[in-house]
Amino acid sequence: MKPLPIDAVLPQLREVFRSTPNVVLSAAPGAGKTTRVPLALLEEEWLKGKRLIMLEPRRLAAQRAARYMASQLGEDVGATVGYRIRGDSRIVRSTRIEVVTEGVLTRMLHQQPDLAGVALLIFDEFHERSIHADTGLAFALDAQANLRDDLRILVMSATLDGLAVSRVLGNAPAVKSEGREFPVTTRYLQFTPDGPLEPRVAAAARRALREEAGDILVFLPGQREIRRVEALLTEETHVDVNIHTLYGEAGAEAQEAALAPARKGQRKVILSSSIAETSLTIDGVRVVVDSGLARSARFDPRRGMSGLVTIPVSAAVADQRRGRAGRQGPGVCYRLWTEEQHRALAPFPLPEIQAADLAPLALDLARWGAPEGDGLRFIDPPPAAHLAQARHLMRSLDALDSQGRLTAHGTAMADLPVHPRLANMIVRAHERGLGALACEVAGLLEDRDLLRGKGNTDIDLAARWHALRSGSGVDRTVRDRVRAEARRLRELTGIKKSEGGEESLGVMLALAYPERVARRRGGATGRYQMAGGTGALLPEWSLLAREEFLAIADVDGVGTEVRVFLASPLGKQELVDLYSDRMTVNDEVFWSPGEEAVVARRIRRLDALIIDEQAVTPSDDALHAAMAEGVRMMGLASLPWRRGSESFRSRSEWLRRQGLVPDDWPDLSDEHLLQTLREWLGPFLGRIGRRAGLEQLDLDEALRSRFSFQQMKALDRLAPETLTVPTGSRIHIDYTHAQPILAVRLQEMFGQSQTATVGEGKVKVLIHLLSPAGRPLAVTQDLPSFWKNAYPEVRKEMRGRYPRHHWPENPMEAEPTRRVKRK
Predict the structure, then answer these.
(1) How far is CA 325 from CA 184, 290, 384, 423, 481, in A?
(2) Is 595 found in the same domain as 639?
(3) Residue 797 belongs to what domain range?
(4) Are both 215 and 333 inside the same structural domain?
C-alpha cells in the first residue's frame, strides 16, 4: 500500500487503544483515515475474532470506502470488508469490517444493544454532526457504560470541536494527524456578489477553465442549481470539457462517471452538492469553485413542519471544500464571496439535531427506554421544544402511551426503516388490506419527485403513482429506486400481493400526515384549512382545488399559509372512518359579524379542522351570551336608543359624575355597560338573535331595572327630566354636559326673574334662549341681568326679522307666549 499521512500516527492510535476505550482522531483531509484506520486496527489483540463497524454519513462514501479497503486486501467487497446501507448489503458471516450509513447503526443497537461480537465502533466524518451519528454515539456510550465496558469507540473527523467530543467520551485522549494537503491558493471576490447564483457560478467555472489546469469541482446548494449551471455550461463549454453532476440521488452510473478520471485530452467539471465535501477523493481535481451555500432542513416545532432553506456554509465546511483542490497536488479555490464575508461565517455547521425533524429520534429514544433522553450523553441535547413536538406527534400516531413508552403499534412502526409517519401509514394500511399501496406511496414520498424536470406541474399524488406503475415519461433511475424501496418494504412487512388503487391514495397521506388533512375554506378557491391549524394554498391551476377535502404531503413549510406541492383527494367518510376516535363534537353559539346574527351549530372537528356542522337551537343563556358579545363588537350604538332611554342615561351619569349621589349609584358609562351586557341586557333579549331584532328592545326598561325604587325617586328629584317654563311648557333638560342646558324660545321666558336650578338647588341650569326659528340668541345663567342689559339689543335686532312675534319693551311684565301676535 502506498504511504499516507495517517500512517505516522497509527502506532500511537494502537497504543492509546490498548489502555483506553475511547479515542478522538483528528486528521486533515486526504490523510487516509477512512480507509487506513480500520485495516490498521483489524489485527489488534482486542479485535481478533471480532468485528468493527464504521459509520459513514453518506451512502456513496460508504460504498467507495468499503470497496477501496477490500481492494487493499486483494478481495472483493463483501468478504473481510463489507457495507450495509439502506436497500443494499454486502455482508457475509466472515465480514469483520462493516461500513454502515444513515440509521443502520441505530437499528443494529436497537436489535442487539450489547453489540455482541463487535469490538470497535468508528464514527467517521463526525464533524458533519448528522443526527444519526449523534444518536448512535449516545446509544453506544450508554451500551458501553451499562452493557459492554470492553466496547471501544473511535470518533474521527477532519474539522471538529475536539474538546466537546472528548468530554462526552469521558475526556478521551486525542490523536492528531497533520495530513498531506498540498497548498491551495484561495481567490475571493472583491465586491459583495449580487444577482442570480447560477450565472455567477457558471462564469467562475469558465474563468477557472481558462486560468487553471486540471479538473474542476463546483459546489452548489442542491440539484436545482446543479441542473441550471449544467445547462449554462453545456451551451458554452468547449467539446474537450465534460460536464458531470454529483449528488446523493443521482444514479450509480452518473456518480461513477463523475468520480472516474477524465480521459486523456479531456477535462471535467463536476457540479456537486455537499456530497463531495468529505471522504471522496476525486482524481484529477485541482480547482474548486465554491458557491458558499448549502441546503439545510429547518424544523418549526410550532407548526410541526420542516422546510429546506439555503444558508451560507460554515468556515469549517468552506475549509473542507477548499481542501478538495489540494488532495493530489497544489490547487486553487475560487470562493464566490468576499474576505469580509468569510470572517463573518459561523465556525462550525449547526448540528442537525438542533434543527431537524426529531420524530425519528423520539421513536428511537422511546425504543431505547429513555423517552426524554435522560441519562444519555449527547454532545448537543435535542432542543426541548422540538422533542416535545415530536413526542406529541408520536402520541397522536399511537406510537407512545401517556408515559412516553413504546406501544405495540409503536414497536411495529420502529421495526420499519422509514420515517415514523410512513411507518405508521404502512402498518395501518396493512391492517386495512392496503399495505402494498402504502409501500409504493412510502417509496414515492421518500425519494425525489418522480416527475421533477419532466414538464409536469401537477401536484396530485395520483400522477406520480400512475407514472410509477406505467414507467413512462419519468426519471428511470428514480423509478427503479422507488420500486426497489417498495419491494423491500413489502418484504419486511410480509405483504404478498398488490392491493389498493388510486382511490385510496388520500387515505395513505392522511395516515402519514394526519395534521395536514385539509378542508376547503368556504368559497375561497384553492385555500384550505389544515387540521394542524395552518392554512394551505394550492396553485391556482390545480384541479384539486375543486375537492372539499384533501390529504397533503408536501408543503413549503413557511408562513401561516403554506404552499402545497403534493396532495391527494380524500373523502369525508374516509376521513371519519380513519379518525373518528380523535374527533370531537361540540355545540358552538357565537356572534357572526358577517351575518350580524347569532350562529348556533353542532360541529364535528379533527383538531383545528371542522369536518361538518349543522344548525341547532341554542339555550337562552347561550343565545344571550352570544348576542351580548355581538353588541359588544358592534358597540352601544347598535342598541335602539330612543329619547327616553338616552335622557334617562344622561341624567343618571350627570349625577354620578357630579358626585351628587352615593358610590353605589348604578354606573351607566359606555365602559361599564359594555362590560356588563349579559347582566343588564340579557334578561330583556328574549329570543332576539339578530341585529335587526334589537329594535324590539325596550331599552328604557332595561336601564331602569338597574335602579331601586329609592334611586328612581332620587333621580327624578335631583335631575328632573324637564323644567316647566312660564308658558307652562315642560322643556327637556340636556344633561350631557358638565352644566345642564335648557334650550327654550325667548318669548316663553317673559316674566321669569329667577334662573332655574337642579341638584336640589346646587347647580344652576344654563339657559339657551332661542329665536322663533329655534336659533340661539343668548346664553345666560342670570335672567334678570339678561333682561336688563342684553335684551334691548336683541329686541332691536329681532323686531325687524320677526315682526309677527312679540318683543315687548319690558319683558319682565310681559305675558309669556308660544304664539305670534294677534292681528
Answers:
(1) 7, 11, 40, 42, 32
(2) no
(3) 722-801
(4) yes
Sequence-distant (6+) residues with CB within 8 A of 82 are: 66, 70, 89, 90, 91, 92, 95, 97, 98, 99
Does residue 558 sit within a domain? yes
727: cell is 308658558
pLDDT digits (tens, 9 = 90+) for 505-558: 999 999 999 999 999 998 778 899 999 989 999 988 899 999 999 999 988 766
Rounded CA separation 97/38 (Å): 7
- Domain tally, the chain: 5
| H/E element, 267 | strand 267-272
Domain presence at residue 537 = yes
CA 267 vs CA 244, 328, 450: distances in Å: 11, 16, 32
On the 0-12 / 13-18 / 19+ scale of CB atoms within 10 A, 196 is: exposed
Q: Which three cell numbers stand for residue 697?
A: 328592545
Cβ contacts of residue 362 below 8 Å, gap of 6+? 371, 387, 390, 391, 393, 394, 400, 420
Rounded alpha-carbon distances, angstroms, from residue 145 to 150, 377, 586:
9, 11, 52
pLDDT digits (tens, 9 = 90+) for 82-93: 999 887 899 999
Mean local confidence (pLDDT), 131-158: 93
Q: Does 690 share its domain with 591?
A: no
Residue 823 has pLDDT above 50, yes or no: no
Cβ–Cβ < 8 Å for 635, 545: no
- DSSP-based three-state secondary structure for 739: coil
Same-domain pairing of 760 and 648: no
8 Å CB contact between 58 and 104: no
698 and 766 fall within a common domain: no
pLDDT reported for residue 11: 95
CB contact at 8 A, 72 and 39: yes
Residue 82: what pLDDT? 96
Residue 361 lies in a domain: no
Residues 795 and 746 in one domain: yes
Q: Is residue 822 part of a domain?
A: no
Same domain membership, residue 730 and residue 714: no
